[in-house]
Design brief:
Rossmann fold, 259 residues, 3-stranded antiparallel sheet, alpha/beta, 10 strands, binds fructose -6-phosphate
């Protein structure tokens, strides 16, 4: 795992967006795995600026988002479809026909999950997967005790996740109880993973993910088995890492290692 520690969230966003832009310039036909949530908003804003000012193109990209709430149609203002249009898709040259999210309003959510997993496989699996990190260690909506081999399916959200996401809804009780999410196994098949986490509130879970035991109790710890993971964090989120000095020695200020 490559651990890049940046001074603050702004610098971490710059670093992460730079890595994504570099990948898209090298491989314009990348299959991108996308995430939603507060952490990603600034990353997408930065990518939009690169699109407008530096010619970064999404025209060759196919994308698959990690998850969607069961019961919310794509035009629902709290759906992840809506989030993605608002924060990225409407502002770049991505082909809407190749930008995929699960349909939260599908009449048979389990069949929709199976269809989504098949579509990811059909596309050749994810090339670069972006991830945020839940306070309870979730990636996508793979809540603690999710199978480390899981594929796209329906998950019941924990109280902690519903509380954390209540800020996006008019009333806390409006947060859906179920979501369709890529599985940990689906994410593990990605060629490369880029995870972002900021702030002191995530320091303990960041340490559990990077240095804790491999356990379904912290789904993100499954990334320890992946061959190409980059974790971009700010100093606050790095606060509980035992080997922090080592990560900063290898990657001073989040730069590439000098060999
Ligand atoms: C979003 C997702 C979640 C979030 C995580 C962190 O599609 O799957 O795993 O990435 O909950 O959310 P923020 O960035 O709001 O702290």
């Amino acid at each position: 795992m490559k651990v890049l520690i940046l001074p603050d969230a702004g610098a971490a966003t710059e670093r992460a967006a730079g890595l994504i832009a570099e990948r898209l310039r090298d491989r314009p036909e990348t299959v991108l795995g996308l995430a939603t949530g507060g952490t990603m908003e600034a990353v997408y804003a930065r990518l939009i600026r690169d699109h407008r000012g530096a010619g970064l193109s999404f025209a060759g990209v196919t994308s698959f988002n990690l998850d969607e709430y069961v019961g919310l149609a794509p035009d629902h203002p709290c759906s992840y479809w809506h989030y993605m249009r608002h924060h990225l898709f409407d502002h770049v040259d991505i082909d809407p026909g190749r930008a995929h999210l699960p349909r939260g309003d599908a009449p048979d959510p389990e069949a929709e999950a199976a269809r989504y997993e098949a579509a990811i496989r059909e596309a050749g699996d994810i090339g670069l997967q972006l991830l945020g990190l839940g306070l309870n260690g979730h990636i996508g909506f793979n809540e603690p005790t999710s199978s480390l081999n899981s594929v796209t399916r329906i998950k019941t959200l924990t109280r902690s996740t519903r509380d954390a996401n209540a800020r996006f809804f008019a009333r806390p009780e409006d947060v859906p109880r179920l979501a369709i999410t890529m599985g940990i196994g689906t994410i593990a098949r990605a060629s490369e993973v880029l995870l972002l986490a900021y702030g002191a509130a995530k320091a303990q879970v960041v340490a559990a993910m990077i240095e804790g035991p491999l356990t379904a109790a912290c789904p993100a710890s499954a990334l320890q088995l992946h061959r190409k993971v980059t974790v971009v964090i700010d100093r606050a989120a790095a606060g509980a890492l035992r080997l922090r000095d080592y990560y900063e020695l290898v990657h001073p200020d989040g730069r590439e290692a000098e060999i």
